Amino acid sequence: MIFFFYPTIVSRLNGENSLNGSSLIDYAHIEQWIDFATLEIDANMLRWFAPRMGFAPFSAPAEEAAIAGLNRGLDALNTHLASNTYLVGHSVTLADIVTICNLNLGFATVMTKSFTSAFPHVERYFWTMVNQPNFKKVIGDAKQTEAVPPVPSKKAAQPAKPKEEPKKAAPVAEAPKPVAEEEEAPKPKAKNPLDLLPPSPMVLDEWKRLYSNTKSNFREVAIKGFWDMYDPEGYSLWFCDYKYNDENTVSFVTLNKVGGFLQRMDLARKYAFGKMLICGSEGPFKVKGLWLFRGPEIPKFIMDEVYDMELYEWTKVDISDEAQKERVSQMIEDAEPFEGEALLDAKCFK
């Protein structure tokens, strides 16, 4: 059996250890940065790296989401390092060790110079750290990749097997073969109930393309196009509000929470479009969403499979109410300020 020890627990076994900071406040900040490095940098970097190396199935939308998440994490790290040499305090701590180890894999595999040049303070921090003697003892000479690995081909070439000469055997009297029972034909896979609904004039993929391709005059092009396409008989619109906004005191934790929700919604990609807004310039942040679902209600399989759904209050949009209709339009276009508050971030599920 393999046991995994959390680094701060292991380091505290040595009694007084400067790697844990000089106070309980420092220790708490170190824990936060370790979580940040794991969830915002390492997780997104691995989602980019692993499929490129053939360790997981490749999906272009999933890669785009991973790169966007990694960009967001590195941008936050870059902002902090603009005025700090180390993550916590004035010397190396466990937060730096964990973060540098995570960054090292990214620099060595997928994070090219053209990618990291957008984060100059992260670059300065990384190269300063990896060239310190204690880091070099473990990491060795760190190098930055010159190119992102290509997407592996779906079918790897198989080496030709040498032909085996058939062995001659003495003829043997064949035993009578029992009458084989007819094999049951495989049962057809059950269709999703949403696929059995009457056809809708609204084609979800066409709306998603319009949303993605509209770069200017968004209100006049994309929003107008949405209402022209919208079919209230075949689709329904829903507002959602997070029930526990008072817990959303840390920005990156709140962003990660919403990002996890969208990942778990992947099973609904064929039947849904969503916008999630994280509102406020400081904590506690408010999380509000707008979702378009196929059918008149929230699909049951989503309610059953995605546990996050219970963490939100869901309200069906009444499009005959002009105020609600305008709120839908504002959420689609990431209007800021939204309901009097700045947007920390806006995420799209499409």
TrEMBL record:
<feature type="region of interest" description="Disordered">
    <location>
        <begin position="146"/>
        <end position="197"/>
    </location>
</feature>
<protein>
    <recommendedName>
        <fullName>GST C-terminal domain-containing protein</fullName>
    </recommendedName>
</protein>
<feature type="domain" description="GST C-terminal">
    <location>
        <begin position="23"/>
        <end position="151"/>
    </location>
</feature>
<dbReference type="InterPro" id="IPR010987">
    <property type="entry name" value="Glutathione-S-Trfase_C-like"/>
</dbReference>
<dbReference type="GO" id="GO:0003746">
    <property type="term" value="F:translation elongation factor activity"/>
</dbReference>
<dbReference type="GO" id="GO:0004364">
    <property type="term" value="F:glutathione transferase activity"/>
</dbReference>
<dbReference type="Pfam" id="PF00647">
    <property type="entry name" value="EF1G"/>
</dbReference>
<keyword id="KW-0648">Protein biosynthesis</keyword>
<dbReference type="Pfam" id="PF00043">
    <property type="entry name" value="GST_C"/>
</dbReference>
<dbReference type="InterPro" id="IPR036282">
    <property type="entry name" value="Glutathione-S-Trfase_C_sf"/>
</dbReference>
<dbReference type="InterPro" id="IPR004046">
    <property type="entry name" value="GST_C"/>
</dbReference>
<dbReference type="InterPro" id="IPR044628">
    <property type="entry name" value="EF-1-gamma_plant"/>
</dbReference>
<keyword id="KW-0251">Elongation factor</keyword>
<feature type="domain" description="EF-1-gamma C-terminal">
    <location>
        <begin position="190"/>
        <end position="350"/>
    </location>
</feature>
<dbReference type="InterPro" id="IPR001662">
    <property type="entry name" value="EF1B_G_C"/>
</dbReference>
<feature type="compositionally biased region" description="Low complexity">
    <location>
        <begin position="169"/>
        <end position="178"/>
    </location>
</feature>
<dbReference type="InterPro" id="IPR036433">
    <property type="entry name" value="EF1B_G_C_sf"/>
</dbReference>
